[in-house]
Amino acid sequence: MFDTKIAIVLRDDLAVWQKLNVTAFLTSGIVARTRAFSASANEDAAGNLYNALAIQPMIVLGADRDLIKTI
Questions:
Q1: Tens digits of per-residue pLDDT, 48-69?
Q2: pLDDT computed for residue 45 by the predictor
Q3: Would the CA dihedral through 57, 58, 59, 64 be positive or negative?
C-alpha cells in the first residue's frame, strides 16, 4: 500500500528514555518536513481536534555504532 517507509535507527547503547526522545524528535522532523507523510488533522465526535499523525509505516531499529556508520 505504501511505496515508502520511515526507518529510524538508534544506537543500542542509549537509555530507554533517550531512545524514546530521539525517536520522537526525528519522527516529528520527518513528518513536519514532508507533508506527504502526514494525514490531515482529526476531529472526534465531541468536536475535539487532534494534530495530524504520520501515515507512513514506521520501523524503529537498534544498532551498534559501527553498524550505524555502515547504514
A1: 988 777 777 888 889 999 998 9
A2: 93
A3: positive
